[in-house]
Amino acid sequence: MSDAKMSDPNLARRDFLKGAALGGAAASTALPQAATAQQPAPPAPVPAAYAFLNTREAAFVEALVDHMVPADNLTPKGTDVGLNIYIDRALAGAWGKGDRLYMQGPWKTGTPSQGYQLPLTPSQLYRAGIEATNAFCVKTYAKPFDRLDEKQREEVLLGLSTGKIKFDNGPPAGPFWTMVYQTVMEGMFSDPIHGGNRNKAGWRMIGFPGAIAVHRDNVEKYRDKVFPNDPTSISDMS
Amino acid sequence: MVTKLKEVDAVIVGLGWTGGILAKELAEAGMKVVALERGQMRTTANDYSVPNIRDELRYVIRHDLMMDTARDTLTVRNNPGQEALPMRRLGSFLPGDVVGGSGVHWSGHTWRWTDMEFKVRSMYEERYGKNFIPGDMTIQDWGITYAELEPFYDRFEYTAAISGKAGNIKGQIQAGGNPFEAPRARDYPLPPLTPILASTMFDKAAKDAGYHPFPRPSANASRAYTNPDGAKFGACQYCGYCQRFGCEANAKGSPHVAVIPFAMKSPNFELRTSSWATKVLKDSTGKKVTGVAYTNVLTGEEFEQPAGVVLLCAYVLNNVHLMLTSGIGAPYDPAAGTGVVGKNYCYQTGAGATLFFEDRHFNPFMNAGGSNYTMDDFNINWSFDRGPHGFLGGYNVGAGFNTALPIGYRPVPQGTPQWGKAWKQATAKHYQMAMNIGASGSVMANRANFLDLDPTYKNAFGQPLMRMTFDYKDNEHKMGRHAADTVNRIARSMNPTAMNAATARTDPWTVVPYQSTHNTGGAIMGTNPRESALNKYLQSWDCHNLFVVGANAFAHNASYNPTGPVGALAYWTADAIKNRYIKNPGPLAPA
């Protein structure tokens, strides 16, 4: 899809989504032979339905995962791999609500070596971080993140990842970025039962065989040889 | 209201490796034994079976088998001048929280620690003089010898289904094994695991450089095995889901396979799960313990379990925490250098390189927990002269994969973008063509590294959290640089297409990311009650009917994984209780 289209503020979000889905399907027909052998054709687009993210947050997450995982000969784009769904379910579930997180004060900043010290659960930090990132984007580009063009999105993510962007009002950007990055990778490479890695696209991309039961005979048989790239998920074996 | 229960002969806190061994041994010897385990029962058939166990997100990232830091954690800082803050989620280390403890999710690497550790101060003083040991390095002899422990190492290796190759049987060096190991009575119960490509490449490079690599001894059964007690192990399937998972094939030497079922068979033994020990109770003299107070975490009910003998067999850190909250032994004071409980807390250090080879296929998802090769030329090799390098201790160097799953393991050359098409291409390209060479290094005890109670933060039971004060010192920095040089030299000799070089850990120790669940010390064994909390039988110097069994007893940390001596010491302690203590209760060693 073109930068101009993505940056058009008049393009309604739902229209943008439909266009994106079509773009993804069109792109897949043009895949080179080797890659089509590796990745099956994407199924009909699944409408995104959210358990945690509100409309603005969903737009942010969809734009983020499509920017970080663009469609190419290796995988479909982030929303077509279900990364937005993975993130939404993770935030709506126990982890997002602070499962296993020690949440007693007093709250101090501490040193980097003391780890996470914010008084926020992951879903609270995600919410506050998206709002602060959008506020930064509006101040800098006069648009929220999901309306930025590709170059501007890249600038924002580089700014977050290198610590250059500091939020005026909101949580520190560092822990927000660390969490965002981790959840995108989790969505890409965790078992599809968790909502991401649709059609095992992340596993196919690298040649990871997934939830395989046994390799005892393969250690010698495949030593220094390519292992068949046909991954198995937990639900395939259930 | 606290319900006081009927007295038993022994109460055990924590049912992992040490608790499992002691439960079995003492119950079979006729003692009435109760074990209190804060976690839940989990079994291979119900909890560790395929396909559900093959879930990296659940077990590696979300810590399904590990301690719940919402309920209890510790505070951390690098030095006594800082304010400690809570470890709000797990990171650097991962204590287990189910029946079987960390012995469920370990990889199985099993070593024999030698007199180079047990006699650390005497050996260095004898060879290099007293001045070679820095003034703030509080290393001391452990009070035990390798010769005393040898039969108990043997017992543990045969119980836990260790696969390996002996390097020294009764003084005869064995081809293919570790030539630097101390003499053993016999070989391992099982032959070594099948090496993977990374291991064979490292093996060749290390040999070409004049070193002595060997297959790493590990509790992954290289073929089906029945241990001397009758526990049946399946053959390891090299499934690639070992560390942080329970074993689907019962091929990993774990307490819930190797020892706990035999305790459960005994009518003398009772296991109470969901039972959280809060305090060790003492009598009015303070010279004996009388039992353990605990809370049933399913109901909130509080109980007291009176017992003739109390055995603390929880994770290292939890054993020390119970000592501190129960007021047993004098807390360590780093300023004055007095007290013993909390003293000599140690960790481990390391350095690793990633090597990329354009034409190789490593299949990093295909491995056993211990299908690695290792060399000890800079570790337990006493002819390696530390003098010119100015450090004490050592490091082992090894290669091979261990649970290289894709959320956590996606090697790319340094400088690769972190997202976008270039990231995808680099990730896809390098996943199959990378291997690691890593060094694991010892940490010598230091006056300023210790455990005590936090003044501010509390756990779910209203008790103070334990406070960990730890950082790497100059000794570890020097050793880390030496280790990184060795790793990089071997790595470069292999002519990789690209390489992320090893660097020493010289930044402050940090609670994220994961480094190692090899925490040691805090309730250490030794030769006298002024310098140690426990005698050589892991018996409290203060209360003779209290034994504190685990890596808490290590007076410093070696480069090796700790479970070998942890298991051996559990059998050693069981032997002392069964054959000496119950016949004549009292101190087993002179103060």
What is the topological layout?
The complex is a heterodimer of chains A (238) and B (591).
Chain A: H1 3-7, H2 13-29, H3 33-38, H4 55-68, H5 78-81, H6 83-92, H7 122-141, H8 150-161, H9 173-189, H10 201-206, H11 218-221, H12 234-237
Helix pairs in contact in A: 4-6, 6-9, 7-9
Chain B: E1 2-4, E2 8-13, H1 17-28, E3 33-36, H2 44-47, H3 56-61, E4 74-77, E5 85-86, H4 102-105, H5 115-118, H6 120-128, H7 146-159, E6 168-169, E7 172-173, H8 197-208, E8 214-215, E9 225-226, E10 232-233, H9 255-258, H10 260-265, E11 269-272, E12 275-282, E13 289-296, E14 302-312, H11 316-326, E15 343-346, E16 349-356, E17 373-375, E18 395-399, H12 420-430, E19 434-441, E20 450-458, E21 464-469, H13 474-493, E22 498-500, E23 520-522, E24 546-548, H14 563-581
Number of individual domains of chain A: 1
Greatest contact between two chains: A-B, 65 and 70 residues
Shape of chain A: globular
How many alpha or pi helices of chain B? 14
Number of strands of chain B: 24
Amount of beta strand of chain A: under 5%
Shape of chain B: globular
As an assembly, this protein is heterodimer
CATH superfamily of the domain at 1-68 and 94-106 and 111-159 and 254-347 and 447-464 and 516-591 in chain B: FAD/NAD(P)-binding domain
- The poorly predicted ranges of chain A are 1-37
Instruction: Tell me the CATH topology of the domain at 1-68 and 94-106 and 111-159 and 254-347 and 447-464 and 516-591 in chain B.
Output: FAD/NAD(P)-binding domain
Characterize this entry briefly:
With 238 residues, chain A is an all-alpha fold.
If you had to describe this structure to a student in words, what would you say it looks like?
The complex is a heterodimer of chains A (238) and B (591). Chain A is mainly alpha-helical. Chain A has one domain (3-102, 115-237). Helices cover 50% and strands 0% of the residues of chain A. Chain A has helices at residues 3-7, 13-29, 33-38, 55-68, 78-81, 83-92, 122-141, 150-161, 173-189, 201-206, 218-221, 234-237. Chain B is of the alpha/beta class. Chain B has a domain at 1-68 and 94-106 and 111-159 and 254-347 and 447-464 and 516-591: 3-Layer(bba) Sandwich (FAD/NAD(P)-binding domain), CATH 3.50.50. In chain B, a hairpin with a 5-residue loop joins strand 9 and strand 10. In chain B, helix 1 (17-28) runs parallel beside helix 14. At the A-B interface, helix 8, helix 9, helix 10, helix 11 and helix 12 of A face helix 3, strand 5, helix 12 and strand 20 of B.
